[in-house]
Amino acid sequence: MPESPIKLYAFATSPFVQKVAAVMDYKKIPYTPVFVHPQKKGEIQFSQKKQVPIIDDNGTIVEDSTDIALYLDKRTPEPGIVPADAAAREKVLAIEQWFDEVFAGKFYVACRFGPPANRKRTVQAFVDTSPFNALERIGLPLLSGYLLREVIRSATENWEHAGEQLDELERKLGNGPFLAEQPQPTIADFAVFASLSVITDLQLEGAGMIRERKRIVEWMDRLRPLTSDGTRLYS
After folding, report:
1. Do 213 and 164 touch, CB atoms closer than 8 A?
2. What digits encode the pLDDT tens for the residues 187-226?
3. pLDDT over 70 (residue 235)
4. Residue 123 contacts by C-beta under 8 Å, 6 or more apart in sequence?
5. Please, which residues have CB within 8 angstroms of residue 96's CB and are 6 or more apart in sequence?
6. Helix (H) or strand (E) holding 57
7. Long-range contacts made by residues 79-85, C-beta under 8 angstroms, separation at least 24?
8. pLDDT for the residue numbered 3
9. In this predicted model, what pLDDT tens digit does every residue of 152-194 receive, in sequence order?
């Protein structure tokens, strides 16, 4: 009996969910997004952490975007996303950790919730993809300024310095075609690309900041034929 597609428990707007989806699309692993209610989280009652992304691979539950990506690389080794060489692997995972701990918040979240126009579109995308009832669909956009006030405050502050994160990304590209000067794309590339492609392909404010950096554009162009674009969880 053929296995069912992997279930990807998700918020469409999460950079970490986007990372996992981009990796699965690169590896051509079938999956079905299961969007989670952000308060009730009934879809992931089996989880203690109750944080997305989570995957259910026909009964095998894996949580945390990095752990999921590494699991997928063992499950479906080709094409690989982690170098075999120990030193190269260390560099790649360090950049992926930088994405998780710095870039995702100071650039991606800052972009989505800093500029008011982006914030409005992000909240609406969240509403459109989440299992809300009719009242919640009306109420969340109206109350989002209050409910997300700390996120908005932090994002607005970080947005003023967002270009610095793109400068750091260019430095991490080095002289190679992919991050950490690797000859083939890795988990680090898909982590960063997944978020940047959302911004450029949904034409959010901030896309121009990305497009004016030639080296980043060339790097993204190398990745585009290999995985999904920024509409991956919105279509």
Report:
1. no
2. 999 999 999 999 999 999 999 999 999 999 999 999 999 9
3. no
4. 140, 141, 144, 148
5. 66, 186, 187, 188, 191
6. strand 54-57
7. 79/26, 79/27, 79/184, 80/184, 81/23, 81/26, 81/27, 81/185, 81/186, 81/187, 81/190, 82/186, 82/187, 83/182, 83/186
8. 79
9. 999 999 999 999 999 999 999 988 999 999 999 999 999 999 9
Residue 42 backbone dihedrals phi, psi, to 5 degrees: -60, -30
Pick the CATH number of 6-75 from 1.10.10.10, 3.40.50.720, 3.90.190.20, 3.40.30.10: 3.40.30.10
The dihedrals phi and psi of 61, each to the nearest 5 degrees, come to -100, 130
Q: How far is CA 139 from CA 10, 134, 146, in A?
A: 21, 9, 11
Q: Token pair for residue 10?
A: 């998700």
| CA dist., res. 21 & res. 19, Å (int) | 6
CA distances from 231 to 202, 214, 226 (A): 7, 22, 15
Q: Name residue 73's amino acid.
A: D
Q: What is the dihedral of CA 141, 143, 147, 152, to 10 degrees?
A: 60
CA 133 remoteness from chain centre: 26
CATH topology of domain 86-226: Glutathione S-transferase Yfyf (Class Pi); Chain A, domain 2 (1.20.1050)
Interatomic CA distance for residues 24 and 207, integer angstroms? 24
For the entire predicted model, the pTM comes to 0.96
